[in-house]
Each structure stands twice: as structure tokens, then as C-alpha cells.
Amino acid sequence: MQPTAARFEFIDRFRGLIGVMMALGHAQYYANAVWLSFDPLDPFFGSLGQFGIRYMGYLCAPGFLMMNGAMVWWAWQRRVRKGVSAGRASWEIAQRALFLIAVQLVWVNASWSGFERLRLDHFGIIATIGSAMLLMLPLMRAGWKTRLGVAAAVSAVHPLLLRIPYDHDSWTRIPMQLLADSGDYNKYPILPWFALAIVGSVMAHWWFERWTTDRERAFKSMAVGLGLVIAAVMMRASGSDYANIWPSGELFSWSFLLVQKYPPSLTHQVWFAGAVIFMVGFIAWFGAWFKPVRVLGVVGKVPLFFYAVHIPLLAIVMKRTGLYYHQGGVAESFLTWFALLAVMMPLAVWFGSVKRRNKSWLVRMI
User: What is the mean pLDDT of residues 150-171?
Assistant: First the structure.
């Protein structure tokens, strides 16, 4: 079955949703004074607003990995069905993956400080997405059940890898943080996030091939997502140290909801895979009749551009100049976010038009 433009609107809108949510998270990182004392290992939130503005960002990384996994798998299938060789289709994806890794090392790392210095010694979320794309290539011909089995196996083995002792000050931190653990070298270890990318490719089978209407995608996605979230809540409530890295605390307390993300616990993987699938279904349903949601597609069509530009804008204006850098709270974080979107939305519209007209290699990669 060949795709139509309309079939991808719900994906673009969801990517746009997590893009603007991510922008809020980054705006509060530069504007919020809570970051002067925030300890990710012992989080304290003075208000529901501070908790909410931190927690909503938990959806973003799983969302981007799963959407990337879905679209990479579908792009490969579409190219091969059009007669392109499997090797050629894989090379096209590999180019994109290597480009993402280079963007992380050369651009994104430096952009967080407003380009004060080049940082080639850090591996971040964009590089992890690129690495997941490379690891997905051998699975492109595999059926959805096989891919789901690989995702489950990787997720199941990951908690065991975290038990391997290593010296955080020696060279051993590089392979451990590259693949399994989180630290200064890499907050997004490849293996657990690769598992979420595979889950995205599994859902692509249903979103793009088996479920043919937005209504079917919406309600079946929400049902699958809700089931996974319920399973994750049960895992969290069990207190199992295999599924949870942090203690759970009281049921639905802040500590209960704040499942470990760096590195992700098994509960996190199930919880946010379910949350992403549920929200994709919700956007497919809500966007079908509530037209303002469709503006999110502006960001969703150019997610890498949006990511790569909004961070240095914040860093240059706030960190480099000291303009309200880590001096505000929730209200100031939202004001920063509104100002950021006022600049970024027109830029996203502009670059979207550039991508439609310009088919050069560099523009296609961005």
C-alpha cells in the first residue's frame, strides 16, 4: 500500500507536539532558578507547576525515538517497494544516521553554551537517534513480531548491564555510557533507546499498513498505549529493583511518577512507550476534528531544524548575555517559551517551504 500525504499528518502533528513540549522544557532549563539546586537523583519540587513543567518533558525523547523508528522503517519499505535495491535504501538511511551523529558532535553540543566552545567529547540524544537508525538496518526485512521480540530482549537485558561495575573516571565509562548507563559522556545510552525505536517500527506496521483510517489508528493506539501504561504502573507499584532503579514511593506521588530516565529503567520503557502510543492515537483523533491542532504539523515537518535552532537561540540570548538566566520560576519559563515560539514558528514555516522546493543533499538531511 502506497502512503498518502494525509496518512502522515497525525505523525507530523505528534512530532510537533513533542517539539513544542521539548521547547518548553528547554525554556525552563534556561529561565528557571530551580536548576541551581535541582538534583536529578534526589528531585524536589516546590509546587505542582514545577513538577509538571519538568515531568511533561519525559514524553519527548521516547516520542522522538519511536517516531524516528517508525518513519525510518516505513521509508526503507517504501523505497524498496518502488524498486530501489535494499542496499541502496539502507545506504540512504545510513547517510542520514551519520549526519545526525555529526550534527550532535559538531553543532548541538556547542549550541547548549551558545557556541562558547566545541565539544566533541559528548554523545547526546541526536547521536543516539542516529545510532539507533544504524542498528535498525539489519531488521528492516524482519516481521513485526521479530522486531518486537528484539525490542523486548534488549529492554530485558539492559537492567542487567547496569549492574556491571566500572570506574567513572577511567576509559570504561565510554563504552558503558555509550551503550547502557548515563553520565557526563552520554545521558542517552544507545541500547534502551534503540529498543524504543524498534517499538516505533512495530507500531508503523499497524499505523501505516494495517489500520487504514484515522479513527481506527486513534482508538486502537489509545487502547494499546493505555494497556502498556497500566502494565508499567503495576511494575512501578511492585517495587521490583529489576524494573525500577529508583524507589517508587507512595502510589502516584511525585517520586512514583518520576520513573528513572537517565538511564531509563524498564518501567520507564514500558510507561513511556505506552504514553507515546496513546498520545499518537489521541492526536490522530483530536486533530481530525479540532483544526487548531494542525498547526503542530508546522514543527513536526522540520523537527531537526526546530531542535537545532531553538537551543542556540535560548543559549545565546539568555546564557551568553545573562538575561534572566536561571532567575525565574514557572511563569518566567512560560514567558520564555512563548517568546521562543514566536520566533521559531515563522522560521519553521520558512524552512518547511525550503524543504519542499530545495532537494539538495544538505537540505534533505536537515
Answer: 96
d(CA 198, CA 147) in angstroms, rounded, equals 6
| DSSP single-letter state for residue 258 | S
Residue 271 in domain = yes
Contacts of 283 (CB under 8 A, 6+ apart): 10, 13, 14, 17, 293, 296
Distance in angstroms (rounded) separating the CA atoms of residues 88 and 85: 5
The three cell numbers locating residue 251 = 502510589
* Closest C-alpha to 280, from 296, 257, 259: 296
Q: How many CB atoms lie within 10 A of CB 45?
A: 17
Span 30-55, pLDDT tens digits: 999 888 876 665 566 778 888 888 88
Cα distances (angstroms) measured from residue 344 to each of 10, 61, 306, 318: 21, 20, 7, 16
* Secondary structure (DSSP) of 157-186: HHHHHTTS---TTSTTHHHHHHHT--SSS-
Q: Which amino acid is at 324?
A: Y
Say what the alpha-carbon torsion angle 89, 133, 146, 152 is, to the nearest 10 degrees. Answer: 180
Whole-angstrom distance between the N-terminal and C-terminal Cα of the chain? 27
Is 161 contained in some domain? yes
- pLDDT tens for 185-237 read 999 999 999 999 999 999 999 999 999 888 999 999 999 999 999 999 999 99
3-state secondary structure of 145: helix
Q: What does the alpha-carbon distance between residue 139 and residue 90 come to, in Å, rounded to a whole number?
A: 11
pTM for the model stands at 0.94
Domain count, the chain: 1
Containing structural domain, residue 297 = 25-365
Hey, is 32 helix, strand or coil? strand
Query: 17 in a domain, yes or no?
Result: no
Give domain status of residue 60, yes or no.
yes
Sign of CA dihedral 224, 225, 226, 230: positive
Are the beta carbons of 160 and 263 closer than 8 angstroms? no
Q: How far is CA 87 from CA 80, 81, 84, 94, in A?
A: 9, 13, 8, 10
Phi and psi angles of residue 180, each rounded to the nearest 5 degrees, phi first? -130, -45
